[in-house]
Amino acid sequence: MPSKKIPLILFSTLLTLSLALAGIFLNAREPVMKNGGTLSPADAAAGTTLVGWEQTAPNQWSFAFTPDPELETLVLCMNYQGRLLEGGTETEQKGLYHLRCTGDPVHLILQCETIPVIWVSTPAQSAANEELRQLFQLLAIACFGMTFVFVLALFYYKHQRELGYFLFYLAVMLVWSVLIYRFPAEDGELFRLLSMLCFSFMLLAAIWLSSALLGLPLAAPQGRVGATVLAISFGLLSLSPVPFIRVGTLIAGMLYCQLFLLRAYWKELEGASQLLLGCAVTTGLRVWVVLPSLRLPFFLESLDFYILRCSRIYDLPFALGCMIFVCRRFAQQFDRTEQLARELDRRVAQRTQALAEQVEARESMMLNIFHDLRSPLFAVSNGLDTLTTAPDLLPDLLPALRERMGFLRRLTEDLFLAAKLEQKQVMLNEDQVMLNEQTALVCGACQAEANKKGVTLRADTTQPLLVWGDAVRLQQVVQNLVTNAIYYTPAGGQVEVICRAGEGAALVSVRDTGCGIPPEEQAAVFQRYFRTTNGRKHESTGLGLTIAQELAHLHQGEILLESEVGKGSCFTLRLPLLELDEEADE
């Protein structure tokens, strides 16, 4: 188990035990008065628990004490499980009885099925306790009510299953708190059954809510059927008339919820720690609520703890933890939405910039096209004007006119191919191709152009290079590389073409001894109409390298560049290499 999990697991467990033991300890320090004792003014002002009741008949109990002479009037407060038969006068509010002290011992006779739990206090303290109880109850109702409205608003705008479970849990708590506030001392069997049902549903709703929030299914045999059977069994046992069975079932339900959250934290589910801490506090406080039903000798419920039990504020820590969990999840979703929005804005800005650059590149390309078209068209137009006045000059003008028309033809063909490549409209007629043989054919065709310029063209195509592609387009790639090298190599220079294999790739390197390309310009070599500033102008269209790189990409390859100013450049076509032996077997 990762060491970072141990502190929180120990802390949550110790927190539950500490709260439960602290309640038992603090309750034991509250004032008590045994049967036959004397009630002092200080104990009466603090609210004293009467202990040591004697059973005088079936369902009948008696208690006697002597009040201090300073005490004139006392108030008895009891839970809804008993009724005073003798010793006091019942007030308008159920569960409260007035006692007039005459200095003589007071004898109380009470009708109750189990050992009574009764507290005696002064009228002023009784009124203050009543106000405090109502204040706590209203506080709990307000907290659960506001939380319910908030979650309902979230559920209205965002229908999520876990929010529905949260609403169910809050509805149970809200109805239960309102019932206790509206009927504080109701002793009907129906009300008692409804109160116990609320406690059971509250525990079940807390378990279901934890499972829904964390997205972790409940561990139950046979899936949903088993979970349903366990829920029904829990509800029935929690309504048992036997106190130990009822209390044991409720404590088991509380511990199951905490163990479930410990399991979720063990699995490192996001937000499990928040629910675990809230559940740990609530579980520790709930122990104070269920212990009085057992009538244990070490926990006779005091008046202060009775007020706290009636207020239902002990469930607020778990509800607060769930609320923090929900708010955190929505905040994270909002953060992710903001991140997506920022990412979308960034991509839109990038796309807008790319479109602007593309428009600018198109405008620049059009200007270059107009410039390249204007020069040969101007030469052809001048030649035709000259022939109009001097037809005898046709033999002298014809070579120049043919050269200009040839440039126009190459330019239009390159523009057409570049446009098709940009629109992804070039279809390849693919098959097995010996790249070295195609390179040899290209070098043979370019030999005349090299001789015309005074450039030595050497080719080493003996290395067999079997690739998959379109033979015509591969010839075009190599031809563009070779002619580009010839254009940029001065007379007396050398262009060397070498076919070789390396690292599973077919490589065709075209090295020249031209002017070279500066490092700052090498990144733009394959852009349209790129011409290096380090060298004289030539008659290329400016599209050859762009077309060659696009065709190489269509063949799952690429063209690499190595260049040094003053020493020349080396363009290398790299394509996936096929195995000769395997192809021969096929």
Can you characterise this structure?
The chain is an alpha+beta fold and 586 residues long. It folds into 4 domains: 31-121, Jelly Rolls (Sandwich); 128-336, Rhopdopsin 7-helix transmembrane proteins; 359-421; 427-585, Heat Shock Protein 90 (2-Layer Sandwich), CATH 3.30.565.10. The chain contains 15 helices and 18 strands. The strands form 4 sheets. The protein has a 6-stranded mixed beta sheet. Helix 10 packs antiparallel against helix 11, helix 11 (394-422) packs parallel to helix 14 and helix 12 (435-453) runs parallel beside helix 13 (471-488). It starts with 5 loop residues before the first helix and ends with a helix.
What's the helix and strand layout?
Elements: H1 6-28, E1 32-34, E2 38-39, H2 41-46, E3 48-51, E4 54-57, E5 60-67, E6 73-78, E7 82-86, E8 89-90, E9 96-100, E10 106-112, E11 118-121, H3 123-157, H4 161-182, H5 189-214, H6 223-238, H7 243-266, H8 272-290, H9 303-311, H10 316-389, H11 394-422, E12 431-434, H12 435-453, E13 456-460, E14 466-469, H13 471-488, E15 494-502, E16 505-512, H14 544-554, E17 558-564, E18 568-576, H15 580-585
Parallel strand pairs: 1-3, 2-5, 13-15
Antiparallel strand pairs: 3-11, 4-5, 5-10, 6-9, 6-11, 7-10, 8-9, 12-14, 15-16, 16-18, 17-18
Helix pairs in contact: 1-8, 3-4, 3-9, 4-5, 5-6, 5-7, 7-8, 8-10, 10-11, 11-14, 12-13, 13-14
